[in-house]
Design brief:
The chain is an alpha/beta fold. The chain is built from 10 helices and 22 strands.
Length: 374
C-alpha cells in the first residue's frame, strides 16, 4: 500500500519537441491502473456484483503485468483483497494506493503516459501528460479524480506537464479524457467531433478544431488527427471513440458497425466507417478497416446502455473484451483474435458493469514500459 506525498517534477518543454510520443496500447506495458468500485450512484441498485467483475479483470491482468489499484481507504483495500484472493488474482503483482476517487473510470481521469524511444542527452524515458478532468463536463464531483495523474507522476518520480490552450478568454488547462482518443503509436490519432467540438458537454469552450489538433500534436507527439462524427446511443460521455473505433495495429482499425438499418446506431456508425475508409495514413495509403458488429441493444430500467465490443483492452499477453451473453459475442471475439494475433482473447461478462455506463477499456489505463538504453 502506498500513500501519496507530493514531489512534483515538471517536464521542461513540450513533449513533442523533446521526442516524446503516446505509444499504442499494444506496446509493452509496465502496469495497468484501475480504481476499485465504491460509488453507489455509478451502479444504482446493482453495485453488489461489480467488485467480482473487477476481480475477474484484475485476475487476468495480474497474469500479464502489475496492477495498481486506487482505493479510498484501508477498509476498502481489505475488502478488495479478499475478493481478489477468492477470485484467484496474483496478489504479488497487485499494488494498492490509498487515494480518494470520485468514480472509477481511470481511462478518463488517469494519466496519459508518453515515452521517448531515443534518449539522447536527456534522462527522461517516460512522462505524464496531466490533462484536466471535469467529469465529462456533466457531473459536479470530479476534484479527487482530477488529482490522479499528478499523484501517479509523483509516485513514479516522473516529470509531468499540464497541457494548455489559448482562447479568446485566456489560457486554460485542456480537458481531455483517455477514452476520447486512440492512437497507433506512429503519428495518427482518432477522435470524434461530438466529444471534442460539440457545445453539448463542452470540454474546452472557445477551443477550435485546429487549436485542439495543435495541442494533441504538441503533447501526444501525433502528426495527424482523424475526426469521426458521433459516438453510440447511450454514451454518457457524449461521443467517446473507444466505443466505436480502435487501432489494433499501426495500419489496422476496427470499426463498430450496426447492420440493423432500423437501429439508431446504424447511420452514425456507417458515417464513421465511411470516414475511416476515406482516411489515409502518413504515407498517403488507406488504412485496413475491419468491421466489428455491435451487440444486441442492452436495455436496463428503460435506459439503453452504451454496450460495444470496441471497448476492449489490450494487455501484455491478452485482450480483455466485454461480452454480454449475446449471440454476437463469439463473432466479435473471433474477429478480434484474427486482427490482434499473439494474444489470448478473453471475454469478460459486462452485463452488470455496463449499467455504470462504461466497460473494460473505460476502467483501465496502461502504463507503458519505459525505453531502455540503446
Amino acid at each position: 500500500m502506498t500513500r501519496w506525498s507530493r514531489e512534483t517534477l515538471q517536464l521542461e518543454g513540450l513533449p513533442r519537441d523533446l521526442g516524446f510520443r503516446m505509444p499504442a496500447e499494444w506496446e509493452p506495458h509496465r502496469a495497468t491502473w484501475v480504481a476499485w468500485p465504491h460509488n453507489l450512484r455509478d451502479w444504482p441498485g446493482k453495485l453488489l456484483p461489480i467488485p467480482w467483475v473487477y476481480a475477474e479483470i484484475v485476475r487476468n491482468l495480474s497474469r500479464a503485468e502489475d496492477v495498481h489499484i486506487l482505493v479510498n481507504n484501508a477498509a476498502l483495500e481489505k475488502r478488495a483483497t479478499g475478493v481478489l484472493r477468492r477470485a484467484g488474482a496474483n496478489l504479488s503483482r497487485v499494488h494498492f494506493h490509498h487515494w480518494k476517487t470520485d468514480r472509477v473510470w481511470t481511462r478518463d481521469s488517469g494519466p496519459i503516459f508518453v515515452k521517448r524511444d531515443r534518449l539522447g542527452p536527456r534522462p527522461e524515458r517516460l512522462a505524464v501528460t496531466n490533462w484536466k478532468f471535469n467529469a465529462w463536463a456533466k457531473y459536479p464531483d470530479w476534484r479527487h479524480d482530477d488529482q490522479i495523474p499528478g499523484r501517479v507522476a509523483d509516485l513514479l518520480h516522473l516529470p509531468q506537464c499540464m497541457p494548455t490552450i489559448a482562447t479568446e478568454d485566456g489560457t486554460h488547462r485542456v480537458v481531455l479524457e483517455g477514452g476520447s482518443i486512440d492512437v497507433n503509436g506512429q503519428g495518427t490519432l482518432i477522435t470524434t467531433e461530438e466529444c471534442l467540438l460539440s457545445e453539448v458537454q463542452q470540454r474546452n469552450p472557445g477551443a477550435t478544431r485546429e487549436g485542439l489538433e495543435k495541442v494533441m500534436q504538441d503533447y501526444l507527439g501525433v502528426e495527424q488527427v482523424i475526426w469521426l462524427n458521433r459516438g453510440i446511443v447511450g454514451d454518457d460521455t457524449h461521443g467517446h471513440v473507444d466505443d466505436i473505433a480502435r487501432f489494433v495495429g499501426p495500419n489496422t482499425i476496427v470499426a463498430a458497425v450496426e447492420p440493423n438499418r432500423r437501429d439508431e446506431n446504424h447511420l452514425p456508425l456507417q458515417e464513421n466507417l465511411d470516414r475511416l475508409k476515406s482516411a489515409r495514413n502518413l504515407q498517403g495509403k488507406p488504412f485496413k478497416v475491419v468491421e466489428l458488429p455491435m451487440p444486441e441493444p442492452v436495455i436496463f430500467d428503460k435506459q439503453r446502455l452504451p454496450a460495444s465490443y470496441a471497448n476492449f483492452y489490450i494487455a501484455n499477453s491478452r485482450v480483455l473484451v466485454p461480452t454480454l451473453n449475446h449471440s454476437v459475442d463469439r463473432k466479435a471475439l473471433n474477429i478480434l483474435a484474427d486482427v490482434i494475433p499473439g494474444r489470448e482473447v478473453v471475454g469478460i461478462y459486462c452485463g452488470d458493469l455496463i449499467w455504470g455506463l462504461g466497460a473494460v477499456h473505460c476502467m483501465t489505463q496502461q502504463q507503458p514500459e519505459a525505453a531502455t538504453e540503446s
